[in-house]
Please model this.
Amino acid sequence: MFSKSLIKPRYIVAEKNYEILGFGGYTQSFMDYHVYQIFWINVKPNFQNKGIGTKIVKRIIEDIKKTNVEGKKPLLIQLTTTNPNFYKKIFNFKTIAILKEGHHLMSLFI
Model:
C-alpha cells in the first residue's frame, strides 16, 4: 500500500528482549506538509500503565518536531482516540470534535 507513496508512514516500536511491548505510527499529511497524524498507539495489555505508551507518543512528537527545519511555521498533530484524557493530561492535546462511538478527534500545535 505504501510502496509507491512519496510520503511514507513511520513507526516507533517499544521492545524488550526482542519482545514487542507496544508501537505507534505517524505520517505527514498529503494535503499540507505542516500537518501530521498519529495512529495505532498500542501497548500489550500486561504492559499498559507503565509509561510505554507515553514514551512512544513523546518519541513521535520529538520526531515530528525535527521535521520543522524552518522553525517558522507551527506544526499541527492530529489523532483520534477513545482515551482523550491521556492525551489532554500528558501532552495538552485539545478535542476538536467528538465522532461516532466516543472517538475524539484531537489536535496539538507544536
